[in-house]
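Trying the structure run again after the queue cleared.
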Amino acid sequence: MAGILVYALHDDEGNFNKNSLGALSEASKLAGELGTEAAAVVVGEVADEAAQGLGAYGVSKVYRAKDVPEGLAQPVVDVMAKVIGDEGYDYALFGGGLLGFEIGAGLTARLNAGVTMEVTEVKVQDGKLIAERPILQDSQIADVGYVDQPGVIISRLNAFDVQEGGSGSAEVVDVDVELSEWSSKASMVQRGEQRGEDVNIEDADILVGGGRGLGEKDNFKLAEDLAEALGGAVAATRAVVDAGWYPYAAQIGQTGKTVAPKLYLAAGISGAIQHKVGMQSSENVLAINKDPNAPIFEFSDLGVVGDLHKILPKLTEAIKQKKGS
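Done. Tokens:
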């Protein structure tokens, strides 16, 4: 029985990536509709218990390549190509992220497969998967089908929700893979999950985003103080990251990360389409900008026209007083 194969990325402590878990959950749901199975591929030293635990996200099997290093794309391509070739999986699904994009692209070339990137939703139609992806600067949605199998689907970050609901224990199948000559040319010297400071904006329920309107690098302290008071994290636009005001790890947008917090407070952000792409899934958007015609007001739930340098400190103080009472 064919099905959907998902690459599950983990860190050095064996913790699986949120976007990978979301992809597993999505694959499980889609496999149920197709009447097939969902399976995962993991590489490196993954404990039996951790691999079996992926069954909680709906996968029935976990193919484990212990001798293959995590963090490098080409060795993982070798593993996935072998599993797909041996087991006949119809689709390969990847959660968003630079490594997922690189592996997905390599797998596409290796198998001469069809690929869809920046996918935001996948549906079943006439017994096959159809990938949906935004086009024309997110103004339209294109439905993409596959002429032949396997089909490769690479999602945007945070496109799929993490949902537990499987049997709780997956069968672990160890696979031996002979790496291609070119896959052994690179070696991992030091693994870093993100460039710049340790900023985890993808899991945050509250984000304070800072843009050019902050004026200068030092003024990000205003956003940081507010985020701390709210119990959230700080994000940034590409313009300020390019200017060196804030690390790339905090960048939201078409060339950064996609987020979906419960509250996104945009301070001094104009709201260009490239930024909107990364935060439009936020449940509530509050924008503060001195320009009443800033595009961000068009998709904000609440907009405040004013000087953020005066508003942010007062808002921070008010929140602190409220929590103190």
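Confidence is low (pLDDT under 50) at residues 193-197. Worth checking whether this holds up in the mutant runs.
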